[in-house]
């Protein structure tokens, strides 16, 4: 048996499904049932371990697993000896203070108060940095209820849409404590590992395939420089001769979200036969 690459993946919660989906797009076999705790992918010599999201950094920090997917907030809260090596663009959230609406709280007002959170370590570090002496009350979840129930004076919690806070009658105050998203981690100080490098290259390929499209168009050679300025591509666009005298065909990657605006601009300078296609997979 070849040496297996061992990767930790969240087994439930907000990050689990999108992480599994991304690994599948990256060509890895993924679990069939959300109850599977281990999944072997022999073709890729990789084993996936489905662990509680907060535990991922612990396993990777101990060097038991060579890489893992978790939230940046969770990795920082674990204080495990791991490095973030790639941000994955999903599971975005901010970690923020909130208190009853209308109270007009500031960070300084937390001096001597009780603040409930599921991320004690992040909060303690933040208070230490800001010189605030407050009591951190650990709760495992549903932190928003703590103020109404009298367990805390304010909360520090994960905010995505803000709906949960609003429904609990709480209002954000102060600067964001942390911006988080799903990330790939590895043990701190780990040396180059060709299998981990392959995983990263594949995941970067998925990120590019999600964020970019391929654009093809024909343009008169006189307008080529203007057109290329609109579609500079990654390492410069491919330009090929067309049978039609004085015209060239151009092929370039462009950001998906700008594709329509770029097509409008290309049309304006006389480009025609402008086509956009999805990138199925890539290595850059
Ligand atoms: N809308 C969201 N709500 C909660 N977490 C989110 C959201 N969007 C992204 N995240 C991120 O997902 C992770 C939280 O995962 P999750 O809530 O599944 O774990 P958990 O709270 O420890 O687990 P559980 O809720 O099952 O006890 C964090 O990294 C957080 O930043
Ligand atoms: O800003 P929103 O879009 O409302 O999302 C944020 C909420 O989602 C998470 O809770 P989760 O569902 O993970 O439950 P938990 O409190 O048990 O962790 C988080 O802890 C907030 O409560
Ligand atoms: Mg949660």
From TrEMBL:
What chemistry does it catalyse, as a reaction equation?
Answer: 1-(5-phospho-beta-D-ribosyl)-ATP + diphosphate = 5-phospho-alpha-D-ribose 1-diphosphate + ATP
Using the record's annotation, list all stretches that form the Histidine biosynthesis HisG C-terminal domain: 209-279
Q: Which GO molecular function annotations are given, in alphabetical order? A: ATP binding; ATP phosphoribosyltransferase activity; magnesium ion binding
> What Pfam families does the entry give?
HisG (PF01634), HisG_C (PF08029)
Annotated pathway, please? Answer: Amino-acid biosynthesis; L-histidine biosynthesis; L-histidine from 5-phospho-alpha-D-ribose 1-diphosphate: step 1/9
Q: Which SUPFAM superfamilies does the protein's record reference? A: GlnB-like, Periplasmic binding protein-like II
Q: What is its main location?
A: cytoplasm
GO CC annotation terms, alphabetical: cytoplasm
Q: Which HAMAP family match?
A: HisG_Long
Q: Which PANTHER family match?
A: ATP PHOSPHORIBOSYLTRANSFERASE (PTHR21403:SF8), ATP PHOSPHORIBOSYLTRANSFERASE ATP-PRTASE (PTHR21403)
**Similarity-based family:** Belongs to the ATP phosphoribosyltransferase family. Long subfamily.
Name of the protein this chain belongs to: ATP phosphoribosyltransferase
Origin organism is: Nocardiopsis kunsanensis
What lineage is on file? Bacteria, Bacillati, Actinomycetota, Actinomycetes, Streptosporangiales
């Amino acid at each position: 048996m070849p040496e297996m690459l061992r990767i930790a993946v969240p087994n439930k919660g907000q990050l689990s499904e999108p992480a599994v989906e991304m690994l599948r797009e990256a060509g890895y076999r993924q679990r069939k049932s959300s109850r599977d705790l281990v999944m072997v992918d022999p073709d890729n010599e990789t084993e996936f371990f489905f662990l509680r999201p907060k535990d991922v950094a612990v396993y990777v920090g101990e060097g038991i697993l060579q890489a893992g997917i978790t939230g940046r907030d969770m990795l920082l809260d674990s204080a495990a000896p791991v490095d973030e090596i790639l941000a994955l663009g999903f599971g975005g959230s901010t970690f923020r203070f909130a208190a009853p609406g209308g109270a007009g709280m500031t960070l300084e007002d937390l001096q001597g108060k009780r603040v409930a959170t599921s991320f004690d370590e992040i909060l303690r570090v933040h208070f230490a940095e800001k010189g605030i002496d407050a009591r951190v009350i650990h709760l495992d979840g549903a932190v928003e209820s703590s103020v109404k129930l009298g367990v805390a004076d304010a909360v520090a919690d994960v905010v995505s849409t803000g709906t949960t806070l609003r429904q609990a009658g709480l209002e954000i105050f102060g600067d964001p404590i942390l911006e988080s998203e799903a990330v790939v981690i590895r043990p701190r100080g780990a040396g180059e590992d060709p299998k981990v490098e392959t995983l990263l290259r594949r995941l970067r390929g998925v990120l590019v395939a999600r964020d970019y499209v391929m654009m093809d168009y024909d343009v008169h050679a006189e307008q080529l420089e203007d057109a290329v300025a609109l579609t500079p591509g990654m390492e410069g666009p491919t330009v090929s001769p067309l049978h039609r005298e004085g015209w060239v065909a151009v092929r370039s990657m462009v950001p998906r979200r700008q594709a329509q605006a770029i097509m409008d601009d290309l049309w304006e300078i006389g480009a025609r036969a402008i086509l956009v296609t999805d990138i199925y997979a890539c290595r850059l």
